[in-house]
Amino acid sequence: MRFRSLLTTAALGAALAVPVAAPPAAAVPSGCDATDAEIYAAPPATVTGSPGDLLACRPAKLTNIPGDVPMKAWKVRYVSTDAKGAGNVVTGTVAVPDAAWTKGGSRPTVAFNPGTLGSGPQCAFSKQLAGEYVDMYEGANLTLFLKAGFAVAATDGAGYLAGQVHTYMVGANAGHALLDAVRTSRRIPGGPLTADGAVGISGYSEGGAAALWGAQLASSYAPELKVVGAAAGGVPGDLKLTAEQLNGSLFAGFLADALVGLHAAHPEMPFDELMNDRGVQAIKDVRSNCLYGTLAVFLGARAESFSTDGLSLGQIYALRGPGGVTWGDIVDRQKLGVGIGTPSSGATYRIGFPVFQYRGWLEEIIPHETEDATRQAYCKAGITTTWKNTYPAEHLSTDWGAAGDVTNFLGDRFEGKPAQGNC
C-alpha cells in the first residue's frame, strides 16, 4: 500500500534548473501555537518565503506511532517548490525522541515520505499520525527510527491543504517537499534540531519514488543538507510500465490516483473535458477517498471506461497540451534513474551518497522489470547501491519486513560507516 507508485508527474527537469529571484521572506512564527485549521488552510494566492521556511506549527500527539516512544512532535506548515518552479505550501510532521543522541555529532534526521494514503484531504499523513483518521500503515516504521535516536521529518506531500488535490507521483513536487521538511524541522521555535545534523532519506512505494527523487534533487536543490544515504523500496521507476500493470487490476485505484494527481499538477493539459459521466464521478471518488476506499471503488477498473471516446492509456499519452507537450512527455519526465551520476559526472542529477533499493520476492503491484531497471540504472551510473530482492513477501508486507534493514542502513551512514554496495 505504499503503492503510490504510479503514473504521476514530476515536472520538467529544465524548470527545476532555472534560477529565480529570491522571494520575499516569510514571517517566522514566534511560537508553535497555530490551530489545526491554520495548518491546513488553503494556500495564499502568492506564496512568499524561501523553500523550507516554517509558516506555522503546533505541538502534536502522535497516537498512531506505536511503542510509547517518549518524544516531542509538531505538525508543520512550510514553503516548498512545485514541479514548475513556483512556491507552494506543504504540511508535515516533525518528531524528535526525548532520549539523548549518543553516537557523536548532532542528532540526525530521517526525511520520510509515506506510501500511498489516498488523495482526500483527510488522508494527510500528519492527520493520520495524530489519530484524526486511520488508513495508514507505517507508524511502526517510524517507531524504529525514533527508537534508534533519529529525528523524523515526514512530509505529507503536496496537495493536502483545504481545496487541493494531492499531486500523486509528481516527482519534483515530492522530492522538494521531502527535502524542505528537513529544512523546516530545524526552524521550529525552541526546537532541538540543528543545521549540521546528518540527513537520511526513506520511503516505500509512492514514498520510494519520492525518496529517490529527493536523492536525485538533493545536491542541486538543497546543497546545504548533509545527506548521507537514501533507502527506497517498491519503487515504480517507470510509470508507463506500472500503469499497464495496474490498468484493469485489483489495484487500479492507484492508477486513478495517478491520473488525477498528474492533472492536479498540470491543469493546462486536456483532462476534464475528456470524461464521460463515469469519469466525472471517478474524479470525485479520487478526491474524496483514502487508500482503501479508492482501491474498493476502482477494483478491476480500466482507464478506457472513463472517457467519452474510450481512450486507451496510449491514446491519452498522445494528447497534446499547450506548446505541443503530450501527456506521454509529462509521464516520461517522472522516470527515475535518467540523467543521474556521481558528483563529478556533470549529470543532471548528481548523487554522492550510498543508496539502498529493495523489493519483495512476491511483489504483485509494481512490475519487477521497473524496480530492477531503476537499480541497474543507479549501478551503471556509478552510484554506490545496495540491492535486496529476497524479502519473502508481497508489496505491503515488504515495507514492514524491510524496515529493520532500512533503519540499520541509515544508522550505519549516520555513524560514518562505509557502504560497499553489491552492484
TrEMBL record:
GO terms for molecular function: triacylglycerol lipase activity. InterPro entries: AB_hydrolase_fold, Lipase_secreted. This is Triacylglycerol lipase. It comes from Actinomadura citrea. Residues 1-27 form the signal peptide. The lineage of its organism: Bacteria, Bacillati, Actinomycetota, Actinomycetes, Streptosporangiales. Its EC number is 3.1.1.3. GO terms for biological process: lipid catabolic process. It comes from the Bacteria. The keyword Signal applies. Keywords: Hydrolase, Signal.
